[in-house]
Amino acid sequence: MTALRPLAFACALVLPTVAAAQTTITVYTSQPQDQMAQVVAAFNADHPEITVEIFRSGTTELMAKLAAEFAAGSSPSDVLLIADAVAMSQLKEDGRLLAYTDAPVKDVPPALVDPDMTYFGTKLITTGIVYNTMLVQTPPKSWADLAQPEVAKSLIMPSPLYSGAAAIHVGTMVAQPAFGWDWYETLAKEGAVAGQGNGTVIEAVARGEKAYGVIVEYMAMNAKKKGSPVDFVWPEDGVSVISQPVAILKDSDAVAAAKTFVDWQLSRKAQEQSVAQGYFPVLSGLAAPEGYPSADRLTILEADPAKMRAEDQANKEEFAAIYGG
């Protein structure tokens, strides 16, 4: 709510539009801050009447912040844009999300739309393997390859204690009969480590501190595009997928403006920007970014969101027991 805007957080990014802006919304997001600056600029080119304030952090920290705010009475957030449909479904179950029944979703795959119209996927984000091209001569082809001792000893992964994408990936991998917790224990035994979010992974691999990393594809591909000595593998045994859903908080005091932001996120213009930022689009008729496979060529690892939500805390505790936290 506008009366409680977060102004004192070190990672808050405030992007005012015009001096005479009529409405202000606050967006809590896990999307990288530089990308969100581009998103807000493009949105304001179409809607200069709406000022957008951004608070950016990892999904797990955002959820903890929201929980604390709800416990105190209310949250200043109007819109959520987070890389975790499981967390979003929990907010829906808790009655925190607004049903937006008229959202423009006719061109969005039904699997990415909440049946009750409280949240909507805006991207397809896959998790795979990044490697340093100066340190690796034969890239891994599969998740199974990471368990090789010479690979695992130089492997870093994001932690589900910080990253929503990592929580989805861990929940997906431990549900696979071929992997499970035994696989994670093997990786740790051979020297693999966990950082915080995906940002710590790409930094370590790009600098050559680690040769391999588990990461969301756009961070690796964007780093490669900018000249970092890295490349990315979509493992042949499958990838986990997140949809970065967008939703409006039920207690928002700027619902009309929040709906305008959601509408724009689901528009072709926003999807074209997503492709330029390195994401698979969710709208039909748009090609994947250069260097990416087409989405229909990916092998998607099966995942049960309800089961993942039920086991989320236990998964985080088990991960912390293996890798620390």
Q: Can you tag this structure with a few keywords?
A:
disordered N terminus, alpha/beta, D-Maltodextrin-Binding Protein, domain 2, 2 domains, six-stranded mixed beta sheet
CATH H level, superfamily name of the largest domain:
Periplasmic binding protein-like II
What is the correct CATH architecture of the largest domain?
3-Layer(aba) Sandwich
Number of helical regions: 11
CATH topology term of the largest domain: D-Maltodextrin-Binding Protein, domain 2
- Major sheet details: 6 strands, mixed
So what's the CATH class of the largest domain? Answer: Alpha Beta
Q: Work out the radius of gyration.
A: 19 Å
User: Order of strands in the sheet with the most strands?
Assistant: 1-3-2-4-12-5
Relative strand content: 15-25%
* Number of separate strands: 12
Taken in chain order, the helices and strands follow as: EEHEHEHEEHEHHEHEHEEEHHH
State the end-to-end CA separation. 33 Å
Structural features, described:
This protein is α/β, with parallel strands linked by helices and 325 residues long. It has two domains: 23-122 and 244-289, D-Maltodextrin-Binding Protein, domain 2; 124-241 and 298-323, D-Maltodextrin-Binding Protein, domain 2, CATH 3.40.190.10. It has helices spanning 33-46, 59-72, 85-93, 149-152, 164-174, 180-189, 198-206, 217-225, 255-265, 268-276, 305-323; strands spanning 12-15, 23-29, 50-56, 79-81, 119-121, 125-132, 155-157, 193-194, 212-216, 230-233, 240-242, 245-248. It has a six-stranded mixed beta sheet, with helices on both faces. Helix 1 (33-46) links the parallel strand 2 (23-29) and strand 3. It is globular, with a radius of gyration of 19 Å. It starts with 11 loop residues before the first strand and ends with a helix. Residues 1-21 have low confidence and may be disordered.
